Amino acid sequence: MASAFSPAEDLMNKGKRGAAAYIRDQYCNPISSDARQQQINELLDTLLSPGKAIDDWETIDWCKWLMAGGRTPDEFSNTVRLYDNATTCGLVWTPNFVAYRCRTCGISPCMALCQECFKKGNHYRHDFNMFLSQAGGACDCGDTSVMKEIGFCDRHGPKAAVDKSPAPLDLMCVAEAMMPRMILRLIHHLRDNCKVSAPDFRVAIQDADAYLTMLLDLNHMGALMRHVMTSALTSPQKYRGLMDPANSSGMTEYDRYCQESHGIYQDAIKSLPNPEPPDEYKDCPSLQEDLVHTTFLEELMFWTVAYEFPQKLVCLLLNMLPDPDYKEALTRAFVLHYSRIAMMLERSNDPDTLSNRVVHVSVQLFSNERLALRMVNQLKLLHVMVISLKYMMSKILVENTLHTPNKNFHFVVDCGRPVMKEHCYWPLVSDLNNVLSHKPVAVQFLSDDTLLEMWFDFLSMFQGMNVNQREMGAHVEFEPTTYYAAFSAELEASAYPMWALVSHLRGPESISVSRRALSFCLTALQDWLDAIGFTSPDVCDALHVSFHIPLHRYFAVFMCEVVRQQGVTLQELLPPTDMLHLLMMHPLRVQVALYEILNGLWVRNGLQIKGQAMTYIQCNFCNSMVDADLYLLQICAMKLQPDIFLNTVIDKFHIKEWLSLCTVRSRQNILLIGEHDTAMMESCLIFLATLISVRTNLGLTDSEVSHLEMVTLLCMGDKTHSQLMDLMPERCGTTPNRDFEPVLAEVAQYKAPNLEASGTMQQGMYGPKPKVWEELYDPLYVLLRAVHRRDYQVSMDRYTEYVKSTKLKSSSTLWPPFRNPAPVSPDYDDPRIVLKSRVFHAMVFVILYKAVNDHNISEHIVALLIYLLEMAVITSDIPKKSANPLCPYTGSISCAANDADFSNWYETDSLIENLKTVIPRAKLVHSSSEYNLEINSDWEIASDITENSLMLNDDFDVEIGEPSEVWDLELLGEPDNDHRNTTAPMDTGSLPALPTNETLNEWDLTIVPADEVPNDNIEDDELPAHQRALPPTVESMALVPDTHSPRVLSMTEPLRFSRMPQRGTSNPTTSNEVDLLQVLFPRLGAAGVSTTDIVPSTSHCHQRIVNRESQASSGQVYQAGLKTGENIISLLLKLHSQLSGVPDSWNPEDIANSSFEGDNSASNNFSTSQQESKIGDGPFFIGQLLKKISRLDPTLKQNIIETNNKLWPRNKDCEDAQRAREHQEREEKRKKAKERQQKLMADFANQQKQFMKKAMETDEAGASGMDWDQSETSSQLTSKREYDCVICNRTTSSTDDKPMGLVVLVQATSVIGHERQQSERLQLPTSDDDTLISKNGTRGANFDYRVDEMHKHFDTLSWLLSVNLGWEGGVHVQTCGHHLHLDCLKAYRQSLRSQQRQQSLAVDRGEYLCPLCRQLANSVLPLSPQLGECSAIVRSRHSSTSAILSELNNFLKEIQRNPISSNLSVAMGKAMEEMTASTYLKYKQKHCQPSHQSLFLFVTSVARTNLEVELVQRGGSLCSSLQETVSLTPKRDCIVALFHVLAMHARVLTNWPVHKTWQYISGLPSDLATPLAIAPHEREVPFLLRDPTALLIQFILLLPLHIDQTYFSSVVKVLYNLLYYQVIVQVSFTLTRSERDTIRKLPERNSSLTPLTSKSILGLVMRHLEHTDFYDDEPSFRSSKSVEQRIQTLCLPFLRIAALLRHHLYSQSLPDIRTTQTEFVRLVYYLELVTEGMDWDCFNAAVALNWQNEDASVEVPRMWCNQLLAFYRRSQVAAKKLAVDQHIYWQPPKLLKLPREYEKLFTYYHAKQCCRCHLVPPEISICLLCGTIVCLKQLCCKQQNIGEAVQHSIDCGGGTGIFLVVTSTYIIVIRGRRACLWGSLYLDDFEEEDKDLKRGRPLYLSQERYQLLEQQWLAHRFDHTKKTWVWHRDSL
């Protein structure tokens, strides 16, 4: 296209700089602008031709040079930045970017800051957090609409651009001319790649990556260039001039391309349709069908949508937001395409990513209130959002299946569709919530009728979704997962906008909009009820439920907020009563279903239904769901008739039949309820108690609600600060509670974390203060909020524990402390009004009657009922004195009652009357189908009955002179039924609480079949006594009269005989005590119930008749038409007696002196109810209730006293006799128990005596066979030590044939290799200025250097015997101290191999758990029989040193190299193999092939490693003051057993003359009288370069381990001589020339009487060595210590190892060393190097030298020096280096020092590159031993299929790696083939972890945890303290 234009070619021939300068000059010259533009257009036609690739590097470079106008692009960029006057930051980031949010500075909750702006701003003591961005974002620094100015950094804000000078006019002229064409090229590229055949849009964006990067770089130049870009993007003229297809360029080819491009563009627009809008909005630009673009920006936004928001294109658009004009233009373009975005979300293949990117854009645009309001007004943004949401949901509607499907024409969303399951609607809802957070926008939303109508239509699509049908047959085959989608949708799409809207209803000015919203909501509810056919409350809904009724909840929440905030009365807002009754039914059904699910009625629906119930009350949902439902039900309870409300509740909870006294169940109810009827009764009471007591929305302030919620959480268990924050219920989308911290401080006490001895780490926890349990703990609210019912039980257990530890020492069962409700707001009636109902009073009567007569009624039901009755008493209406004058009480009032017709049980709703009204009989009326008697049903008596079984005769309905007949009943054909039942809760005994009467006992039974319904006017008294007791027909009951033997009962109707003996004299045969509460309330369990004072009871037995066929479905049965003759007061008194376990337990004196205060209301009587104690058991609460009842009315008080006297006539003599008998029986029982205890103790003492006698006979020396520590004397005298096998439990000694073993864990270790010379910790670098950690300063690196040097200069076989390895990858052995037979272990391991469940053990590698302590082990150390044989070898009797040295020489000559073959030797060989296999090949040998010497080196090094590790665990020295406060040394060591195994192998491997070495070192004459001389081989290591500690271990292993201590001391003395001269030579190198001259001039020691000094010996050595140039160099290091101090310091490591050896081998306690200054002195005395006392002035290291004679003290050191000189002549540098670094005082290993603030560490490392792959690892991890960065779990750095972290753990830690994962704060520990999450070292201000930085709070290093981690590393305890190991399979 451009080839025809030669001017462009001429320009390009000038070169980039030349052409750019020329064009800039042209723009500066005053020629016509058209000519200038033509020149650059010709050039750009060539450069930006659509035929060229857009990412052509040459084109991009030309563009950069042309804009620079003769400068270099970098110079131009820096110049433009100088004039940057931007007031906002606007930095855009992508997901996983580290950003900050400061709630103190933020105005919008979406506010975010980049790291640089946050650091430069002042946020000290602000409430901020760091976070990893999920969807991307932009920095708001400088934006006053989003954050306060106090948080701005110094570069942004209104004041930042004040002093900026304007830019030169010609600086940007070329850029302004080029920018439209550059944007056009991008548009053309996007059009070209949008053909229908294009499979993947990502390819097109990838092709344009370099071009987009260039545009982003231009944008980063600052406000000047940004303005150029935005001007081009938003100019309609430039867009029209370049894009209008009508404009011709004059170039045929280009014009044709433009036409094709326009066609593609038009097709693309048509392929992206929008939802069909309502007719009135079809002309709205944002909703019209045909899109019209007028600017580059609008078309670019279209392509952004079409390409599904590519990340780089989004960043380009957002990066220009700091330009205010552009921000509005971008928002307008975004809104124009918003409805089409909804379409894209619906059909996207990756809706999650697309959603994040959409929100990335929208959150930046809609957070500005002014801008959002403008879009609402101009482009109908709210309408667009709601229409888009409706359209998205309308495509997935299905028929609603609630109630009767054929009458239901409502449609709801299908929760199984991808739109719901993948949350495609989330961006739209998020944006809607964002704009509704602005009050003007929310008010407009509520003021627009069309919007409200559309919105409630949208909510109707959720109303009744995800219907659950209860499975009645088999268990559901596949559990649906749709409930996740349903709950998420209601929360996000319904609740979030609801709370956003109501948050703005704050005053009378918005009453009208509130009323409008409620009106539309009611209309929508009415339409929905009509649509589902729910026109009557009687519609059956028992087998299905939907938890989703958002319309009800909108109505409830709006009504609540309007009443509370705007002063509107409730009556003005309520619908008519019939509508309110209909509204009540669905929330009530949800409540009932909740309890049905919790009680197991829906168990066949699977776990998902329980998940729905838990989600319904979960903290994120409860405010929007259960609280709203409960509020609506409370309103219904206030405004509906109480009888209607309660009857509805009874019906919906399916408890009508439970409340019946009828014995027969209707078939449908048995099918419906099954065995869960009692549980549903309890749930109904919980619901009623919750309904009347909860005040969350009825008057509590926000602060009071916060207190209540916080207390509820704390009572369910101690919690961390973050758990409390997360679990506090939230009103979705609103800001969190501002009063959180004050409330927390008021009700909670902080519990600092403790580090347990086992290594378990805790976090800082909050628990309730004591006053919480006494005053604030509300069990009902806990039940309301407890997601798991066990949470409630935990709270009760904690409450009980508190009470019994502080208040009540009794063992009685505490009742829940149900609280008196808070006052109700004046706007509402008290919901307790529902209790002012005769229906409730009848319920109370029935439940109390069953509680008294049925032992299956749980105490929790009784407690709830007593609470409800108490609330009824408190709120009851007290009659006025004038209207109801008091009259004397004359007796009980009787009332006939129809069973289950509770409305007719009492004549009035007056509680005062109904409490004393007697219910004489219940009339049962049944249909013939319901009362179907099965003649052949099989009944059995389920418990025993004796001749003393009594029934309570009613006191209120007994006629004087009525015969006192007793019916004794027995089953036909059962002659003996004394012990027939094995399922009864107790064997014998009647209830001591119940009154007995030997002279008056009756069975009062009346069974009334359906065809023989008694006449209502026949009173109970008119029936003969026998007619009341006998069944009406012969077929139904057969009686065999027998006055002496039990009678026979044959019944077709299940009966329940309740034992109620009358008060009278006790049965004289009383012999048993009974746990009364266990009998009364067996559901509580035997272990959980006890009474403090249990009295003897008569030996009566409870008889229960059970239908075998219906036993599972019927929990209890009662007499039909039972003649109760009870009132509520009498039942309360009996219940009090039952719970107390004492007859006549209630004391009438409690109310005798109380006076009645008759006021118009009961509130004054109970004004102190809030202060009264709520701590007590059942009798306490019933007594409190009786007191309250007595204060209601004088007649009630009199009735209580008289009823009590009737039940238990006062008979003091009988009571005294009863108490005396009870006391006597108790004393007899105590006496018998004491006798049994004494007999048991005597037997035990006798057995102990016999055992001791046998032990004495076995071992006359008094040695015990137990495996515990013996005293030193006894252990030395033991001939054969015995051990306990923890598998077979036999105690035996270890023999060669049947050896015992010690359980050990063998592992590789590099702990010693990490020792350094610095005493302080090395700092982990956190900035580029910090010093890097050197790898060469460790003990392991030093050893590697020495070995390399020795390998160069000496024979391999020589240097192998001169050192120890194992500093890195050494073998460490530890034990738990338990023993076992090796045969037993073999069988144990074999059994482990056959088990499939040992997933955590590598059984094939020998791993097992100690059978006793369960610690990990992988080997066993066979125990030599010689252990403990201290007298097996003759003690040294020689006093001369020469003789001892000679004997030692003979021992070494006569080493037993071939052990006797036995099971023990085989086991020792196996143990050695396991030790060898435990480390890694590269650590087993250095620079050599396997040989006897290399294997011998490995064996001796194992011993050295274990001794060095023990020294480290003791703090690096033997000073007691330096040892850790927490002991790192194991409780039981295995050094001696290990040495026995090592010694055997060391002797086998020794095939060289070890005694020769001994002769050279000790000064003994060599064999054949060869004089001492230089070693015969030049390439042997000089003795002065050999490791004395290595030689010590070699000699100890080769000598007999049980030799006399004198020999051991002699070996130490000889090697100390060698050590001393090595140190002397080393110290001499550190002296300056003047110091050496001074020492040389000292007089020589001329007599043996002259005391030895180190300086004199130093002078001798220097004089011997100075004949060469040994001391020519000045020392590189000067020590501040004196020469003597240096010598002693360098000698200490050897002395410590020698002392540990003596301690272990001879069981001698280590000396108590208090200070470091005395350590050397104490050790040389302990090791017997010095035995004579001397003055401190005379003491020095030389006095510890011990020679056999004077000649040896001169000749031997001379020989050593000559050897060194000979080596020096061969290699001067190596000799000096090896001699100077021979002994180094190493400091104990330490982990790296970490920064206190985690933010410093995170900032530096989270984006740092790996040194190997040079990539930023997703989970970057730092080794805490050396500071190396590794790529955790990444493939990039894997070598030989081993992950980098695993390989580094081998290289650095010998298989143990400790890594800090920067992105999660957690420590990962790798141990061999396992790994575990150890925990976090960094905690927040509340000492709590923040895994994965989810909260982003400032974190600080926990010194306690850091110390614990280091201790576990040093002590090798990771395997024992961490239990969560996983196999890493080399993948880390």
TrEMBL record:
This is E3 ubiquitin-protein ligase. Residues 1150-1175, 1212-1237, 1315-1335 are annotated as: Disordered. Transmembrane segments: none annotated. It catalyses: S-ubiquitinyl-[E2 ubiquitin-conjugating enzyme]-L-cysteine + [acceptor protein]-L-lysine = [E2 ubiquitin-conjugating enzyme]-L-cysteine + N(6)-ubiquitinyl-[acceptor protein]-L-lysine. Its EC number is 2.3.2.27. Pathway: Protein modification; protein ubiquitination. A zinc finger (UBR-type) spans 87-158. Residues 87-158 form the UBR-type domain. SUPFAM superfamilies: RING/U-box (SSF57850). Residues 1152-1173 have a biased composition (Polar residues).
